[in-house]
Amino acid sequence: MKRIAKIEALKIIKSPVMWTLLISFLAFNILTMGSDFRDDYVMETGESGDAYDGLDMEQVFETKKAVSPAHLTGSYEQFVHRNYEKLQARVEEIRRTGEGNAPFYPGEKYHVFSNLFGSTGKKLLLESAAFLMLSLLLLMDYERMRKTREIVLISLTGKRVMRTKICVGALTGLLFCAVLMAGTYLFFFWKVPLAGLWDVPVSSAVLSETMGMASFPFVTFFRISLGQYFLLSLAVMFGMLLSVAGLCVALQLFIQNCYLSFLTQSLLYVGLLAVTGMRAANFIAVAKTFLNPVTLWVNCGLWFIENDFVMSFAGSEFLSVIGTGIVVVLLIVAGSIRYRRMEVR
Q1: Is 304 strand, coil or helix?
Q2: Are 256 and 141 in contact (CB under 8 A)?
Q3: How far apart are CA 117 and CA 192, in angstroms?
Q4: What is the C-alpha to C-alpha distance for residues 202 and 89, in angstroms, rounded to an integer?
Q5: If you placed Cys at 83, which of 127, 279, 312, 325 could pair as Cys (CB 3.0 to 4.6 Å)?
Q6: Quick one: how far is CA 228 from the chain centroid?
Q7: Backbone angle region of 38, left / alpha / beta, with phi > 0 → left and psi within -120 to 50 → alpha
Q8: Quick check: 11 and 143 in contact, CB under 8 A?
Q9: Using alpha carbons only, what angle is made at residue 329 by residues 304 and 5, rounded to the nearest 5 degrees?
Q10: Pairwise CA distance, residues 80 & 95, whole Å
């Protein structure tokens, strides 16, 4: 199996499509980030008194309750309300410790945080998803495209090879994702001097930027530095990409056509994007938030911060990743059963 895994990996590594995409994505990211950089970055010291004094999370709760598409009542509403009470305690902690006074580049002027974690993060997630889907589908559908699928289906060896293809396809896809992310982030760090600033709390009043209707600072669920935020964001992105890979595997096991699988998964994500803005109540509102990976993508750059009305508690991002993962695992199991039955025939 090691020899087979090496052969399968080389199919992806030597694929001109993958390298063309890698170069194109890197060039696109660098060119689109170019207009966001400045020649000089000047730090300022925050005054948390101006930003956090008078900030009432109870009022924020009432405002978001009125405008949020999630219409929560009963125990659901009480749970979210308790979360905002905890956020109020967090605001008071920031005032007391002076956490919001940390110096940084003014967010409203330079937009460092939103560029690094928002726009760049969203682009990398989309591009990495494309890498994973392509690497998996190219291997899983290789025999069908070369009209030798029947030989694989009637043999036990073919079954084992398919498992190897899935593992190798996922790993090689993640390798391309890692190269893409490394190249993009290194360019960003080269243009924006962040040395010595990784310990700055994300709740710094200077770092914050306007979020939609809200103009108050980033109220994090706990004290988190810029460096910790970066690592946690990478962890969430990794979990999201695993769910993309798992869904791709499940669809291919069902559909058995890489072109239709790619189209189906792409259309599914478009549909899930439309669902995020639909008004729903209680269980449906919670389900469409925590079982919808597109919700995390939409909120990319605002993770671990008070932002989404339903996801207003610490760990909600990882709960969403786990919820999506459970659904994907169930789909893979169902797809594997169908694939085994195809082999029997």
Answers
A1: coil
A2: yes
A3: 13
A4: 17
A5: 312
A6: 16
A7: beta
A8: no
A9: 105
A10: 23
Which pair of tokens denotes residue 334? 């169902």
Query: Could you give the angle at which helices 2-13 and 156-191 cross, rounded to 10 degrees?
Result: 50
Q: pLDDT digit string (tens) for 132-171?
A: 999 999 888 876 666 555 555 555 566 667 788 888 889 9
Stated length of the chain: 345
Q: Give the list of residues 6+ apart from residue 229 with CB closer than 8 angstroms, or none.
A: 117, 202, 304
- Token pair listed for 105: 């580049």
Single-letter amino acid, residue 13: I
Residue 233 has pLDDT above 50, yes or no: yes
Between the alpha carbon of residue 198 and those of residues 104, 109, 224, 227, 228, the distances in Å are 10, 19, 10, 5, 8
User: CA 47 to CA 53: how far, in whole Å?
Assistant: 10
Locate 251 and state its tokens.
Answer: 């669809």
- Find out whether 136 and 252 touch, Cβ atoms under 8 Å: yes
Whole-angstrom CA distances from 52 to 55, 65, 203, 313 are 5, 21, 10, 19
Which own/partner pairs from 297-300 qualify as long-range (CB within 8 Å, at least 24 positions apart)? 297/122, 297/125, 297/126, 297/240, 298/273, 300/117, 300/118, 300/121, 300/122, 300/125
Give the other-Cβ count within 10 Å of 126's Cβ.
Answer: 12
Contact 221, 311 (CB under 8 A): no
DSSP-based helix, strand, coil % in the chain, nearest 5 = 70, 5, 25
Closest by CA position to 133, among listed 5, 264, 23: 264
What pLDDT, in 10s, does the model give residues 252-292? 989 888 899 999 999 999 999 888 877 777 778 888 888 88
Here the tokens at position 318 are 């990882």
